Amino acid sequence: MKKIIILAIVVGIILSFSGCGLFDNEAPSITFTDGQSIEVEVGTVFDVNNYVSFSDNKAEEPVLSVDNQPDTDKIGAYSVSISVTDEADNVSTEILEVAIVDTTAPVIELEGDIQMHIDFKSSYDEQAATVSDNYDVCDLIIEGEVNSDIMGSYTITYLAEDNSGNKTIVERTVLVSDLSGPVITIEGESAIHLPLGKAYEGILPIAVDEVDGEVTVEVSSHVNHLVAGTYTIVYIAEDQAGNRTELEREVVIDPLVATTDTGIVTTLYGIRTFLHDTLTAGAEVEYDIEVTNNSGRTITIPFMYLYDNGMDIMTYFERTSIYGEFETLEAGMTKRIQFEEDYTGSFNDIFDAKGITFNYNFGDGVTGFPYRFDFCITDCL
Are 358 and 304 in contact (CB under 8 A)? Predict the structure, then answer.
């Protein structure tokens, strides 16, 4: 009887200690935050603490262990074993199904602007694009065409899809419109020379636009042919789209050029050549010829004429000689004649320059009297 009483007392004491928490037979609890089946993006970091929580009736910090840690650099499925052990070695184990997946779409980067403008009837050069993906190597598909012969808006589509079915589409807008101004065409050189006093009579140029056809040309400047200098004529044309074209022509009004040759007639036959590099075709030239008869008697001058040296006389002057004007000259008298011609331009064979040659022939064997020859462009002073 005494043994039974002692045994009852021992059992009571054990139960009493167990009720006070001295003995722990309860395992920790595991709770899944997002369920026991989750997806983790490939290439990211897997941390089990983000998906489970645990608690214990006694231990403040149970020990967590993970078996079969997933490789997040590869797509695949993993059964991850999660165990939690408390201080009394009570263990709880659960399985977390982890799928490493790729849900990130490829990235397409356009070269050039997402909205492009090209000129009417010009060529469209594809600017291309690059594609990258977080996991796969993807092909880039480009769709769409641009007809630059028809103005309007066109769409070029860029498509990329990875092996997981993630798809990216980027669109580029190409606008075909009139971006070029009219083309202005002028006759002759872009820079011309005119002698002083000769008015500029240039023909108004033509301007043609690719879309609008022929358009109006305006002139914004003025040439004063009475004042030597350099002038700029600006031709302006604008199409209906507002594209503006300007073309310049330089007009140089050359200053007065004059050459005077004086001397004494020493031979009956003479040739005088006058060079002027500023001579241009169409220039108005003037000749003043003056002879003073101091021989003491009447003299006869058979002929005097001018020609462009080295060229056929009749090619450039209708009046190459001045017969009749210098037939006779009384003693003590001075005779002066003037006439104008249009210079057509040639090369002096002897002096390798532009020039006029004056030939004279004095009759009667008389020499020793003075002469004067003035060669001018436009006006002789």
Answer: yes
